[in-house]
Amino acid sequence: MDDEYFMRLALNQAEIAYLRGEVPVGAVVVRGTEIISYGSNTRETSKNALGHAEISAIDSACKTLGKWRLDDCIIYVTLEPCPMCAGAILQAKLKKVVFGAYDEKFGSVGSKFNLYYDYKFNHNLLFTGGVLKKECAAILQKFFEKKR
């Protein structure tokens, strides 16, 4: 199992969000090869600004593992995390974030700025962007073309 395998699982979550009429972003939290949790966008259906895929996946992982510190886990997300999600990933002490499509408007792991590189925190977080970038961008493009 590799980054592409887990990103495909996150893409499945993005598809679920798409079918609900949500911006299609999906996330998966993994420990080793074990899938700990899934998440997808729910902002429209929940009417809650915190309904991002990453927040959902982190919340579920903490409940599943019975701890807030996820330092032995990796999160895979189909879109570069926004400032809120990048901060939540940092606060949860995740070992690494792997994302697909870059987000030129809100991306906080390289597109607008890099929360993990530009600032010094007491937790060093690894990150990789662009995994299955085309597939992750395609579902977003399809969603927004349909909305217009």
Note down, in words, how this protein is organized.
- It is a single chain.
- The relative contact order is 0.17.
- The longest helix is centred in the first third of the chain and has 17 residues, at 3-19.
- The protein has helices spanning 3-19, 43-46, 53-65, 83-91, 115-118, 133-147, and strands at residues 26-31, 34-40, 74-79, 96-101, 126-128.
- Helices cover 42% and strands 19% of the residues.
- The N and C termini lie far apart (37 Å).
- Strands 2-1-3-4-5 form a five-stranded mixed β-sheet.
- Helix 1 (3-19) packs parallel to helix 6.
- It contains six helices and five strands.
Short description:
The protein has 148 residues and is α/β, with parallel strands linked by helices. It has six helices and five strands; from the N terminus they run H-E-E-H-H-E-H-E-H-E-H.
Q: Tell me about the biggest sheet?
A: 5 strands, mixed
Strand segment count: 5
* Strand order in the sheet with the most strands: 2-1-3-4-5
| β-sheet strand percentage | 15-25%
Element pattern in H and E = HEEHHEHEHEH
- Runs in which pLDDT lies below 50 for 5 or more consecutive residues are none
Mean pLDDT: 95
Distance between the termini: 37 Å
* Helical content (DSSP H or I, runs of 4+): 40-55%
Overall body shape = globular
Gyration radius (Cα, Å) is 14 Å
Tally of helical runs: 6
User: Which structural class do the helices and strands define?
Assistant: alpha/beta
